[in-house]
Design a protein that fits this description.
It contains 18 helices and 16 strands. The protein has about 500 residues and is an alpha/beta fold. It folds into 2 domains: about 220 residues, 4-Layer Sandwich (Nitrilase/N-carbamoyl-D-aminoacid amidohydrolase), CATH 3.60.110.10; about 200 residues, 3-Layer(aba) Sandwich (Rossmann fold). Strand 5 and strand 6 form a beta hairpin. The model has no long low-confidence stretch (mean pLDDT about 95).
Length: about 500
């Protein structure tokens, strides 16, 4: 930054030294010690410019702090400890950190700068107010703020409000990249004392945002349309999970349905077509049309494709189980056998060649248990875990529109969705129309509304109650699901914590 633009200060995000969230690594004393050693080593290399760096600080007595260091001329000049520790949703900071008590107002080349960390600026009064009263002329907030739909506007509105409230410049630095189920979308920004957006970095892109507060005309990256924004979050989350965990290639089951089609294009955009394997595993219940669509999709994407019929394996399973199964007519057991055979095949490829298996289930299915444990749920990462079925269709349409030659066959978009585990089966005969299902699920899961409130929207109360019952009954499945990208305000991860043994009724 100094060499390219003669900058006075470079700002790194929250816990930049160790990554966010470090979770129970923070309980390991050597982890905290090594992060401090790394900061000290970095400090020795900083000359001619000041740096604000997020790290984990320790007082030597067992207390640790979410901290920001001011580095100048090769030494750590000052340290601020985060005061407001979030403990909701995906955040567990009170489990580890002690709230700070120092002001966080640093002198940088004669300018009083108030440095605070993420949640500090979200809480009215307190930290940022104290810093401006202490003479700060600029507020710098370093953050690790995870992506969710609509979050960028919420952040921007907050920063504008703080800038106008204190009549002060507000600078905001956010992380970019995927970490387990979280995606950090970047979009670092600067706001004037009048509440005007001076500069904004791109979403989902690592870049250096350089600005001079005395000048105008800085780049303000456009906000992505919602479907594109969500799609880019899914791609980044999948790419970073695969690469950061050492997986060069990914595999997925290609059924010819819309969910696997979307996961396939996400995979190609995440890791490259040469690193994606599509496996079609048709049973006697798979239509010729869906088998053909799976093959066409793979060809459109240019990925390697295997067709591995499971009819003979299914027949052998049923023969072995016959002495016990024949007394009872066919039911869900025979259906789930098909899904589990497919899961075995995919995991065999994964073990043999070191691939990451991507599951293709969506949030609607996961919510009501319309999925098979150790079957279609088998895998290492679930890109669509937080994507409702209606959104799956929207993302497929957006992705097709983004290319001159749409990768997803139109027939996949038009066909009624089906698990194809028995003849003439469709999802909606079991679950109802996805538009209705997702409306109930969104209100129940993400907005905490009960059946009576949801019924005010004109959907039948009996249908709503049935859906809620399915959600409540399938917590045990969700606990065994692979990780996936958090997209909404309440995903099936850390921000959804319900007991599996639970008979509470509204």
């Amino acid at each position: 930054a100094y060499d390219e633009s003669n900058a006075d200060v470079v700002v790194f995000p929250e816990l930049a030294v160790c990554g966010y969230p470090p979770e129970d690594l923070l309980l390991k004393a050597h982890f905290v010690e090594n992060n401090i050693k790394t900061l000290n080593a970095l400090a020795k290399k900083v000359h001619g410019i000041s740096a604000i760096v997020g790290f984990v600080d320790s007082d030597g007595t067992g207390k640790i702090y979410n901290a920001a260091a001011l580095i100048c001329d090769g030494v750590i000049k000052d340290v601020y400890h985060k005061r407001e520790l979030p403990n909701y949703g995906v955040f567990d900071e009170k489990r580890y950190f002690t709230p700070g008590g120092n002001s966080g107002v640093f002198d940088i080349k004669g300018v009083r700068v108030g440095v605070n960390i993420c949640e500090d600026i979200w809480i009215d009064g307190n930290v940022h107010t104290a810093q401006t009263k202490a003479g700060a002329k600029v507020l710098v907030n370093i953050s690790s703020s995870p992506y969710e739909t609509g979050k960028l506007k919420v952040r921007e509105d907050l920063l504008k409000r703080r800038a106008k409230e204190h009549k002060i410049f507000v600078l905001y630095a956010n992380v970019v990249g995927g970490q387990d189920e979280l995606v950090f979308d970047g979009a670092s920004m600067a706001v004037s004392p009048q509440g005007e957006l001076l500069a904004r970095a791109k979403q989902f892109t690592e870049e250096l945002l350089v600005l001079d507060l005395a000048k105008a005309g800085h780049a303000v990256a456009p906000v992505l349309p919602e479907d594109e924004e969500i799609y880019q979050a899914l791609v980044m989350g999948t790419r970073d999970y695969a690469h950061k965990n050492g997986f060069g290639k990914v595999a997925l089951g290609l059924s010819g349905g819309i969910d696997s089609a979307l996961v396939a294009v996400i995979a190609v955009d995440a890791v490259g077509k040469e690193n994606v394997m599509g496996v079609s595993m048709p049973s006697p219940y798979n239509a010729k049309a869906t088998r053909s669509d799976a093959r066409v999709l793979a060809g459109n994407l240019g990925i390697e494709f295997i067709e591995l019929p499971i009819k003979s394996v299914l027949k052998q399973f049923l023969k072995l189980l016959g002495p016990w199964f024949t007394a009872t007519g066919p039911n869900i057991a025979e259906e789930n056998l098909q899904a589990r055979i497919r899961g075995v095949f995919l995991m065999a490829f994964a073990n043999k060649f070191g691939w990451l298996v991507l599951t293709t289930g969506n949030k609607s299915e996961m919510a009501v248990g319309y999925c098979t444990l150790y079957g279609d749920m088998s895998g290492g990462f679930a890109p669509l875990k937080d994507i409702f079925k209606t959104r799956v269709y929207a993302l497929c349409r957006w992705r097709n529109a983004a290319e001159r030659n749409p990768p997803i066959p139109k027939s996949i978009l038009l066909r009624a969705p089906s698990a194809e585990l028995r003849h003439a089966q469709t999802d909606e005969e079991t679950l109802g129309p996805y538009e209705d299902l997702d409306q109930v699920l969104s209100q129940y899961i993400e907005q905490h509304h009960g059946a009576a409130h949801i019924a005010e929207g004109q959907l039948p109360l009996q249908y709503i109650q049935k859906t809620i019952k399915l959600v409540d009954a399938n917590e045990y499945k969700r606990r065994q699901a692979p990780p996936g990208v958090k997209i909404t305000a309440r995903a099936f991860g850390k921000d959804w914590r319900l007991p599996m043994t639970n008979h509470y009724k509204e």
